[in-house]
Amino acid sequence: MKQEYQDLILQVCGASSLRVGSKIQTLWSGYGEIVRLYLEGCDRPSVVVKHVKFPEEAEHPGGWNTDRSHSRKVRSYQVETHWYQNYSTNQRCRIPACLAARSYGDEMLIVLEDLDVASYDQRRTSVKDREIRACLSWLAHFHAVFLGAAPEGLWPVGTYWHLETRPDELEAMEDAELKAAASDIDRILNECRFKTIVHGDAKLANFCFSQSGQDVAAVDFQYVGGGCGIKDVVYFLGSCMEEKECEKRVPALLDYYFSELKLSVKKDVDSDALEKEWREMFAFAWTDFHRFLLGWMPGHWKINRYSKQLTKEVLHKLKQ
């Protein structure tokens, strides 16, 4: 790590020295890394640094190496930097505190609170009902905090699969009927009355859990932006349950999300109308992500019977 970056971290943390620890992960397509740094001489034992470095040649696991793909990723890190510098949440939808965020030409540095130190030190690859509900509660509170807020400096429409940012994947689709309906589905989602700020990549891997699994914090705000909150819910549920589980458990989990949302929104919000609209958007949001997967990676495990059934229902509604 460059001395200039180390000096910034020492300064913002009030530390006397630092040691580069383990790499937490490499960023998507080789765009840098996330590392943990250990500090001496201050009240923080460690921080997490997201170090973005735009590569000469990107390596995309799906083979989508295009100028458009690169521009989208560059924008995503600019959005994430802006998010951490300008937005805040509350304890019910916990995110790491941002200690510093800087751009250095083709490199960016985001210095974050280490959530492990704050007792969110558990990661899950599979979850029980308690953890699913903790994440849905986080999303409900997050959507309530930003209900009606303009996504200033963020993506106008959040989520990484938003149709406008994915023309290559749309072009690659073989499902002609869904391909033709994609813009109508996108328009219906974008025209919903109740809008909030969505996390945009609310998969299980982006949640950090307490030991009990009852408390949770979220990370990775590259695709945070405006939109219908149910898009986050759909993406989260699809990230941690297979088709049979979805068929069996989604109704009760949606009930739980909406009960948490109703408890969280301001008193002047028509929560019944909000719930009615977002429930109606559920199948459209699920189908919208299904559309992305069909173009991006047609063999993906999430392309399953449950997704196909919801898509069939949506296409039928559009014909009426």
Automatic annotation (TrEMBL):
<dbReference type="InterPro" id="IPR015897">
    <property type="entry name" value="CHK_kinase-like"/>
</dbReference>
<feature type="domain" description="CHK kinase-like">
    <location>
        <begin position="110"/>
        <end position="267"/>
    </location>
</feature>
<dbReference type="InterPro" id="IPR011009">
    <property type="entry name" value="Kinase-like_dom_sf"/>
</dbReference>
<dbReference type="Pfam" id="PF02958">
    <property type="entry name" value="EcKL"/>
</dbReference>
<protein>
    <recommendedName>
        <fullName>CHK kinase-like domain-containing protein</fullName>
    </recommendedName>
</protein>
<dbReference type="InterPro" id="IPR004119">
    <property type="entry name" value="EcKL"/>
</dbReference>
